[in-house]
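Researcher: Please generate the 3D structure of the following complex. Treat every line as part of one assembly.
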Amino acid sequence: MSVLCNTCNALENNVPVITLLSPKGGVGKTTAALLLAIEFAEGGATVTIVDADPNFPLAKWGSMPGRPERIEVVQETDEDAIIDTIDAAQKRSRFVIVDLEGRASARVTNTLLMTHLAIVPMQGSVLDSDQAARAFQSIRRASKAAQREIAFAGVFTRTPASDRIRSRVAQQIADSIQAGGIKTLDTSIAERTVYRSLFAQGGTLGDLKGTSKTSIDSARANAASFARDVLEAMNSSKAPA
Amino acid sequence: MTDKAPPESRMTGITSFSDDGEPDYIAPPSREVREQAKAVGAAMGFVSDKPLASSSTDAIETAPKKRTRAPSQYPDHYNLRLRTGDRERFDDYAYRHRLPKGEVFRIMLDLIEEREAEQVRAGNVD
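Model: Done. Output below.
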């Protein structure tokens, strides 16, 4: 059983909708979504992934053998119907994870109206940070329109496997985000071959073949730490000020 | 009149994600909220992929316009009357003189113009 079980239980009777968004493509939204889903499922929770990327990478993963039974993948790209799709999903799963495409669209806006926690993956580059800033702004505006607080946090992705290595640009961006009062998750999602293998082989990290145990263990530790941070971010968003 | 019974207290050992004791269900937003959010999002470039719904004003604008007769670009000063064998003679002329048919037509028009001018000079005009 995963260490996430206790935290998952704490969320019982509540169906958090977690959305991964960024107007920029290739920042690791889909990988982050899949890692979260796998971690939650291995922690004993039922998860519905709403694949809102027209390329349907998660639906493709879901069609391969090895998908945990607790994970359901549904495809939805209609910007209006996505509201009802998320609504239906939150009635049948404990977690709903929405993976949006890397583009600014009304689909993003409508999804945010149904979101508890929005996560904005970003790499340590100026291009990424510009688009991340746009994403944070869109979340704030959606909060106003929805007349409720939509919690959000950034997460650094595709970072070197070692936490100690960070470019000067990436460090300055991290400092700038912190100065802007935006929460970033402590755990970064590292650039790992095993994460790419997930989409090629299907299944979970533990099922991967042809990969060293050390690599898998490191990846699983990284994914578990990321999922814990996400749950903490959700809990802290509900904590009284 | 009956007072509502107080809600059952949660087990103290279990952490509550929703501190207000209510489940965190998000109901689908109303049409107004959706439209407001969409307008705000569109201003930031988060635009809709769907074509705009046609309104009544659009319907008026897109109503078929009444067609007006366009002024003729080539006024019909010349009345050509084809008689039996004219086409064959025309084709034969072009073939025998090794001329393109357009050139033959130009020659024909020049001849007609010349003839009309002669009629004008002679005062024999309709």
